[in-house]
Specification:
Layout: E1 13-15, H1 16-23, H2 27-35, E2 42-44, E3 47-51, H3 52-65, H4 71-87
Antiparallel strand pairs: 1-3, 2-3
Helix pairs in contact: 1-2
GO molecular function, one term: DNA binding
Protein name: Excisionase family DNA binding protein
């Protein structure tokens, strides 16, 4: 199948709107989760972008668990691990 592009590469980051479309949710829901530190994103000035790897990990976690994945819980666990690493001098 040809898409009119020679080298179609998957992006490293998605816009919030693109990520929301992929995850089949409303962009405002995703923006809210990002602002509440409930979903991983990178803020560049006033704009957020979502790492494609975060969307992939979320899909993989849902597939592997066979159930509901709480993204806020995943984000909280990640923040806690980062804080432990920071307090212990970077050892993870």
């Amino acid at each position: 199948m040809t898409f009119g592009h020679e080298n179609v590469e998957r992006p490293t980051f998605y816009t919030v709107r693109e990520a929301a479309r992929i995850m089949r949710c409303n962009p405002s829901t995703l923006y809210r989760a990002i602002r509440e530190n409930g979903f991983p994103a990178v803020r560049v000035r006033a704009r957020y972008v979502v790492p494609a790897a975060a969307v992939d990990r979320l899909a993989a976690a849902a597939s592997e668990s066979g159930g509901c994945v709480d993204v806020a819980r995943l984000a909280a666990d990640h923040r806690a691990a980062a804080e432990v690493a920071r307090l212990s001098g970077g050892a993870r």
